[in-house]
TrEMBL record:
Residues 24-274 form the EAL domain. This is Diguanylate cyclase (GGDEF)-like protein. The chain holds residues 241 to 519 of 519 of the full protein.
Amino acid sequence: RAKKDGHGSYRFFEAEMDERMQARRHLEIDLRRALALREFVLVYQPQVNLRTNTVTGFEALLRWQCPTRGAVSPLDFIPLAEETGVIIPIGEWVLRTACREAAKWSPAHIVAVNVSAVQFGNPNLVSTIISALAESGLDPRRLELEITESVMLDARGTAHAVLQVLRTMGVRVALDDFGTGYSSLGYLRSFPFDKIKIDQSFVRGTSNDPVGAAIVRAIAELGQSLGMATVAEGVETADQLARVASDGCTEVQGYYFSRPMAPDQIESYLSTRNRTNLL
Ligand code: C2E
Ligand code: MG
Ligand code: MG
Ligand code: MG
């Protein structure tokens, strides 16, 4: 009897696995189709320099407008896109689109693009970036790549070499989600990042979160010593803004200033902001 039950639950497990595999297959196919049908768009979120109170640039964030699933968050499809490799063509589209759209902005503003570790495994990454820059006419110094520590984890150091090449071209490099990985400090030593983005989890603690505040202060100080800008991510309230400013962060990104916006909203956002002086 026990044996029969065991068998039954094994079957159940198998069916469930099957269903999940099916769902993943569907999602993968849908992602490829989405690219072909132009269902992806980029939205842009401003980064504000706290000393000058000006917008330094915008981070490009991917959105999938799926006719059947609705608006799908990148958190729900980037991991599978990475596992299946679909992130390569999607990432290419993101790079080309971000460069093309940013080339229309005032030359004062940079565009930050998230690039995943899997993309660094693709030998064509550098040539994709070169042609995205050439096609758009965007100054390489206005392109910033946001990478996470996982990019630096490859044993052969290819990502490191690729970053060096891009750096020589003038492309900027930011370390994203800082503080959430394993050996962040070592990476700071191995590559001269332009910017450290302090993860939201440290920024969004309440006013009685002395540990979070201590971490933000320590990273800001580290950034200052190393000549790297420090961006507090996920600032939602005036209170958080005041705290990260006094903790020494040089820039801020978050809903407090703006949610990510469609490209055609950028111009009016900037002109309204200049008139009203939001800080
Ligand atoms: P990320 O690069 O750390 O981007 C910041 C995320 O925080 C974005 O989520 C942004 O919308 C959100 N955010 C910004 N300010 C606030 C705030 O004040 N409060 C809260 N609650 N959230 C805030 P999003 O757009 O959902 O993107 C999630 C992640 O997906 C990104 O994290 C990034 O890792 C990845 N991603 C997004 N676009 C791309 C892309 O084009 N390529 C790749 N490879 N990954 C991407
Ligand atoms: Mg990012
Ligand atoms: Mg981040
Ligand atoms: Mg993230």
